[in-house]
Amino acid sequence: MDRAQKEKAVDELGQIFASSGVVVVAHYAGMTVKQMQDLRAKMRDVGGSVRVAKNKLAKIALEGKPAVKMGDLLTGMTVLAYSEDPVAAAKVTEAYAKGNDNFVILGWAMGSTILDQAGVKAVASMPSREELIAQIVSAIGAPASNIAGAIGAPASNIASILSTIEEKAAA
Asked: If you write DSSP's letter for every residue of 82-140 in order, what string do you get?
């Protein structure tokens, strides 16, 4: 890797650290190419991505960023998994770590907050952004549907009573 490529890599990593909602750091020693492709596909499905980078370049990219303390996690063969939705990245990496002994989560950074492996597990158990939106929409919509049902019920009852009376008169 020549100097220009290193500078480009540092710039790309700097963008990742600055613009991502969360960056999960994990060891991946012993993983096969197929396993890494599988992890990348799962992260892509939730709007995230996976990046293998040299630790030294990643530490340079962290300088001046809120997550500068994350540099302590960058030892050995590390991979960065990142996404805008902090819960999505945590869920995917946590689920993947359960099924693959070669993928070990070291921690993560969300802004200036650095969490260890236990913190990632705690965040992974939270509902994702989409799940929260669905819960809020259903909570907002439930009273409206109850009101609509209550308003429509008397008319429905009257219609069924009238049809019953009509059937009895016809018989």
From this structure: EESSHHHHHHHHHHHHHH-TT-EEEEEEETTEEEEHHHHHHHHTSPPHHHHHHHHHHHH
**Rounded CA gap, 4 and 80, in Å?**
22
Span 30-76, pLDDT tens digits: 999 999 999 999 999 988 999 998 989 999 988 888 888 888 888 88
Instruction: Please tell me whether residue 77 adopts helix, strand or coil conformation.
Output: coil
Q: If you write DSSP's letter for every residue of 135-158 in order, what string do you get?
A: HHHHHHHHHHHHHHHHHHHHHHHH
What token pair was written down for 144? 């409206």
Neighbours of 14 (CB within 10 A): 18
Torsion of CA 46, 42, 18, 103, to 10 degrees: 140
